[in-house]
Known about the structure:
By secondary structure, the protein is of the alpha+beta class. The protein has helices at about 10-15, 60-70; strands at about 25-30, 45-50, 55-60. It has a three-stranded antiparallel sheet, with helices on one face. The two termini are about 20 Å apart.
Amino acid sequence: MPRVDASDPLAAFEKRRRAPMEVWRRHHPLHGGASHLRPDEPRALEEWDGFAYVPAGTADDLAAAHAWAHG
């Protein structure tokens, strides 16, 4: 985790804009449930925009979603 520069007047603001737990991209099954169940079903993709997670598209299956999130 990057350190906050105390001399920067916007340091607190920048810290709040970081993604929770440094997760910038995530995916969820479209129909709910745990992400490891039904790996052949489509996934919703989300990206952190500095304030909230916003929709970024869909993936055909768990492998494609995982490649997008960690690639």
